[in-house]
Write a structure and sequence with these properties.
Layout lengths: L1 H51 L4 H19 L9 H19 L5 H13 L18 H36 L4 H9 L7 H15 L17 H39 L2 H8 L4 H30 L1 H7 L5 H10 L3 H29 L12
């Protein structure tokens, strides 16, 4: 009895020690990854601030606009026509100085860029220079939050359909290596070199311009339907063309890549052994082909997602889709630095979250990966 008690106590102590060790390893690994990704995000955002301002050139443009607008407003105001030229010039300079101080242009760009960086990291994005939200506000936070759901809807729908359809078809092609359908897929894989907006133009011409079965662009009909069901159907109708353009632009290359991975793993010795034992083909695909390739598939899918939603700028503009991509395109044309930086911050945080979660997904799908384990066995 005493021996059993000692054995149980020893086993519990070992389990608690293992749990503490595992928890500490996971926390230590998470902290290191967060710090690494945080430094990367900070560097990326600061470089974006420098590039968006063109090293201070945008400040020069803004100063010239302030000078021109202030001068014209004072010269066109009848109340100031009685002033002497010297008094008018003094008034103009005072108005210009006040406006530059309000916008922070009276300080060196380097000091302002550090302030921009701190505000950006804390999502204190300030006010836009030329852009407004749908409610009329110039708060960058509101402008981006209004556009973010549309981008997530488009990206999520297109990416999920692309992922599951291409994996399913790639598995089927790996069973029919050398067939006519396999050769057609290989021949069409170079079509993925064209961006989504390229296919979007043709889809708009065919289905909107010629057949008149789908809308040219936008998120919803104008005026929008009054019922929730009708509104949802309208959004779904407008979603078809942009989502199809995104799927078509990456479909054949994704199928070709994953079909190649499946073929490589299907020729392994343990797969031949499983076939020799008489295991069903579905079980062999699921346990011995699909699962070993999951880390690679997940990595490719994550990179594909990142490349797609960071490359939506022109695609959303072509389809007049009111998302972050179109907002960024408009902000670049208007030299609206706060909106440009704010959009980049959202993309940077989404990228960091994706990469951070990707490491833990590896541990779930691949038993060979130990989070934070290093060389421990």
């Amino acid at each position: 009895m005493a021996t059993e008690t000692i054995t149980a106590t020893t086993g519990q102590a070992k389990r608690e020690a293992f749990a503490h060790t595992t928890l500490g390893r996971v926390l230590r690994y998470s902290l290191v990854r967060l710090v690494t990704l945080g430094v990367t995000v900070v560097i990326g955002i600061y470089l974006t601030i420098l590039i968006a301002n063109m090293g201070g050139y945008v400040d020069t443009i803004m100063r010239n606009e302030i000078r021109d607008n202030t001068t014209q407003s004072i010269l066109a105001n009848p109340a100031f026509r009685s002033l002497t030229p010297e008094a008018r010039e003094k008034l103009i300079q005072e108005k210009i100085a006040l406006e530059e101080k309000r916008l922070g242009l009276d300080k060196p760009f380097i000091s302002r860029s550090i302030k921009y960086l701190v505000n950006a990291l804390t999502l204190n994005l300030g006010r836009a220079i030329n852009m407004n939200s749908d409610s009329g506000s110039r708060q960058v936070r509101l402008i981006l939050l209004e556009r973010l759901p549309a981008t997530l809807l488009l990206a999520g729908t297109a990416d999920l359909i692309l992922f599951f359809s291409s994996v399913f078809i790639a598995l089927g092609l790996s069973r029919r290596y050398g067939s006519l359908l396999d050769k057609i897929t290989i021949a069409l894989s170079p079509t993925s070199s064209a961006p989504p907006w390229f296919y979007g133009i043709f889809l708009i011409l065919i289905f909107a311009g010629i057949l008149h079965v789908l809308p040219f662009g936008g998120l919803v009909d104008s005026p929008p339907p009054e019922t929730s069901f009708g509104y949802g159907l309208s959004v779904l109708k407008h979603l078809i063309l942009p989502a199809s353009a995104i799927i078509i632009s990456s479909f054949f290359l994704s199928v070709y890549n994953w079909r190649t991975f499946f073929l490589i793993y299907s020729s392994e010795d343990y797969v031949d052994m499983a076939r020799a034992k008489g295991l069903p083909a579905r079980d062999i695909e699921r346990r011995y082909i699909l699962r070993p390739t999951l880390p690679t598939i997940i990595t490719n899918f994550a990179l594909l997602v990142i490349s797609l939603w960071t490359g939506f700028t022109i695609t959303e503009t072509v389809f007049l889709w009111p998302g972050l991509g179109r907002t960024l395109f408009q902000a670049i044309g208007l030299y609206d630095t706060p909106v440009i930086v704010g959009s980049t911050i959202v993309y940077a945080y989404m990228l960091g979250i994706t990469v951070f979660l990707l490491d833990f997904v590896y541990a779930l799908v691949d038993p060979r990966v130990k989070v934070g384990g290093g060389n421990q066995q």
